[in-house]
Each structure stands twice: as structure tokens, then as C-alpha cells.
Amino acid sequence: MLNQIIAWRGKPLAIRVENGPEYVSARLQNWAENAGPGLIYIQPGKPQQNAYV
Q1: What per-residue confidence (pLDDT) applies to 43?
Q2: Which residue numbers delimit the Integrase catalytic domain (predicted)?
Q3: What's residue 35's pLDDT?
Q4: What is the pLDDT of residues 8-35, one digit of tens each?
Q5: Alpha-carbon torsion 51, 48, 17, 12, what sign?
Q6: Do 18 and 42 meet the contact criterion of CB atoms below 8 Å apart?
Q7: Both ends of the chain: CA-CA distance in Å?
Q8: Is 29 helix (H, G, I), strand (E, B) or coil?
Q9: Is the Cβ–Cβ distance between 9 and 3 less than 8 Å?
């Protein structure tokens, strides 16, 4: 799904994610490494760093 979004809108420089288990998975990290955008994790306990909160 992320590959489709990148095809439609272009590749971002980075994707900001929380530190939850769904975002620290090896599969997502491998995808980001191969696809190009980096992953930027917010600090634990700092949800205000998420732009959509």
C-alpha cells in the first residue's frame, strides 16, 4: 500500500512514526530501507511530536 501511495504522490524524505510495536517491526524497517524514505521515530511519551495529534 505504501508503494502505491509513493507512486501517486512521490517519495517523502522520511516518515514520522510512533514507537509502538506496529512501527518498529523488521518488515517496515526493511521496506523503508529498500524503498528510500527514512523512518523518524518520535520520543517515547511525546505524542505532541505527532503532527496529527
Answers
A1: 77
A2: 1-53
A3: 83
A4: 999 988 888 877 776 678 888 888 888 8
A5: positive
A6: yes
A7: 23
A8: helix
A9: no
DSSP string, 5-51: HHHHH---SEEEE-SSTTTS-HHHHHHHHHHS-EEEEPPTT-GGGST
All cell numbers assigned to 26? 523488521
Residue with cell 520520543: 43
CA distances (Å), 18 to each of 2, 40, 51, 52, in order?
17, 8, 11, 12
Where exactly are the structural domains of the chain? 2-49
What the block records as the C-alpha cell of 51 is: 503532527
Distance CA 28, CA 38 (A): 11
Q: Which of 10, 18, 17, 1 is nearest to 36 (CA)?
A: 10
